[in-house]
């Protein structure tokens, strides 16, 4: 596809349930980011991959959150034992190469997955 | 610590009026600042970045290091400009810190 694709678009989970959110970045994009956007707030950084390497996971709110990108393309964000405070839109973004001056900051976002924990 | 502040949650203007969306930042290093826009039912997308000094869809933004501001301006607002606007600060090469956003409503 032409853009970043996320699935599912909507997910309702019962408290305590595990969920997995998928991100298909733009083909060839080296960098991949996950963000969490609570209602009425801007996106907040969760984690960053460069190819398959997770270079920064400082934004993950707890050890219940886990992200992987095993082959350097598709990424999965997993949340274990979901809590109500996990309800948010989870955004994935990818960029070609942050090391290239002309491409600095050109991150392309997916539509997001809206997670509701009940 | 780095921070981005967008003081207005909602800004309403009439079509043809000038618009200014405020953004102030706090960052000890050399800032790289961006404006992202999200139209209704669409994904977040880059509008412009300070390093390019560009004008996109009539919008401009000037980085003012003295005032630590990066306000977004347009001389004549259009109805299609109605959207959520996020100011973002890029730091440590791979993180974006976003403001809480301003909803721009352009009335006919």
Would you write up a description of this structure?
- The complex is a heterodimer of chains A (118) and B (108).
- With 118 residues, chain A is an all-beta fold.
- Chain A has no helices and 11 strands.
- In chain A, the strands form 2 sheets. In chain A, strands 2, 4, 5, 6, 9, 10 and 11 form a 7-stranded mixed sheet that branches. In chain A, strands 1-3-8-7 form a 4-stranded antiparallel sheet, with no helix packed on it.
- Chain A is globular and about 40 Å long.
- In chain B, the strands form 3 sheets. In chain B, strands 2, 5, 6, 9, 10 and 11 form a 6-stranded mixed sheet that branches. Chain B has a 3-stranded antiparallel sheet with strand order 3-8-7, with no helix packed on it.
- Chain B has 108 residues and is mainly β.
- Chain B contains no helices and 11 strands.
- Chain B is globular and about 40 Å long.
- Chain B has strands at residues 3-5, 10-14, 19-21, 24-26, 32-38, 45-49, 60-61, 72-74, 83-91, 95-98, 102-107.
- The A-B interface holds A 3-4, 31, 33, 35, 40-45, 48, 50, 55-56, 59, 91, 93, 98, 104-112 and B 4, 6, 9, 32, 34, 43-46, 49, 51, 86, 88, 90, 92-101.
What features would you highlight for this structure?
heterodimer; A: 118 residues; mainly beta; 7-stranded mixed β-sheet; 4-stranded antiparallel β-sheet; 0% helix; B: 108 residues; 11 strands; globular
């Amino acid at each position: 596809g032409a853009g970043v694709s996320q699935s599912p678009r909507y997910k309702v989970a019962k408290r305590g349930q595990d969920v997995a959110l998928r991100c298909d970045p733009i083909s060839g994009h080296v960098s991949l980011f996950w963000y969490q956007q609570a209602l009425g707030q801007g996106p907040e950084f969760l984690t960053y991959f460069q190819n398959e390497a997770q270079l920064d996971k400082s934004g993950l709110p707890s050890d219940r959150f886990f992200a992987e990108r095993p082959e350097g393309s598709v990424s999965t964000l997993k949340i274990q034992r979901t809590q109500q405070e996990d309800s948010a839109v989870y955004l994935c973004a990818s960029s070609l190469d942050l090391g290239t001056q002309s491409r600095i900051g050109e991150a392309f976002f997916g539509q997001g997955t809206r997670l509701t924990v009940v | 610590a780095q921070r981005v502040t967008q003081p207005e949650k909602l800004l309403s203007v009439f079509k043809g009026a000038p618009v200014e969306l405020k953004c102030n930042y706090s960052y000890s290093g050399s800032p790289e600042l961006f404006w992202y826009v999200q139209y209704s039912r669409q994904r977040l997308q880059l509008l412009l970045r300070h390093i390019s000094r560009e004008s996109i869809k009539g919008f401009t933004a000037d980085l003012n290091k003295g005032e630590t501001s990066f306000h977004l301006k347009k001389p004549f607002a259009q109805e299609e400009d109605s959207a959520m606007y996020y100011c973002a600060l890029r730091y440590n090469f791979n993180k974006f810190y976003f403001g809480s956003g301003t909803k721009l409503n352009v009335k006919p």
